[in-house]
Amino acid sequence: MTLLTVSGLRKDFGGLRAISDLSFELRKGEILGLIGPNGAGKTTAFNLITGFIPATAGTALLEGQSILGLKPSAIVKRGIARTFQVVKPFRNLSVLENVTLAAFLNEPRRVRAEEKARATLERVQLSRKIESNAGDLTLGEQKYLEIARALATDAKILFLDEPMGGLNPTEVENACALVQRIRQDGTTVILVEHHMQAIMKISDRVVVLHHGVKIADGTPHDVVRNRDVIAAYLGRQAA
Fold first, then answer.
1. Alpha helix ranges (H) inside the chain
2. pTM tops 0.90, yes or no
3. Which residues are paired to 190 by β-bridges?
4. Which of 43, 98, 201, 228 gives 20 to 30 Å between its CA and that of 146?
5. Is there a contact between 161 and 46 (Cβ–Cβ < 8 Å)?
6. What is the DSSP letter of 135?
7. Of all helices (H) and strands (E), which one includes residue 13?
8. Strand pairing partners for 192?
């Protein structure tokens, strides 16, 4: 079953075309990796689909319903939540308070919102830090907190923007396991990530962007052997 269908997505910044005719599908229950060299348009694509910047052209359908042009808050209510490259927790609030604020989106009663927040923190293995100030967490813990806040909105689809950036190898392994658990629990995942070994390990399918254009869409096994992908990453025609 297809949850999200993106067709002909385009974004122009003045005379610069950042995204050109991007089309892909995201199926229920899969992990889709979105990769490409720096400046390829990955985060721009995330920003377009999640409503943080307007598209120049194209469509994005969530379960058959158009979401392009909606505000981020409306898109979250429809079931798409995201994290960001740079974590921005409410540093002076506790971990529990951070996630409870997100849970209020669909649960207006504080007691129920806190219950959901506690369950979500357990899900991402942050329950031991529940009373800590968010600003006191390590980078890896703050990334988990970002994920917990997104999950607490009852997201059907989780957009993760470089969830493994800046993490050490052990933390990357743990983050991979977390993403896989999230999928096993029923949440569909699309992620941007520069850690190629990790994204190829956990993704069911990979979409590759280069200069805003999709140059590949397939299994990790097929994508790493694609001549256009090799050329984009190496900066030359593959032999």
1. 42-49, 72-78, 95-103, 110-123, 139-151, 169-184, 196-202, 220-223, 227-234
2. yes
3. 32, 159
4. 201
5. yes
6. G
7. strand 2-13
8. 34, 161
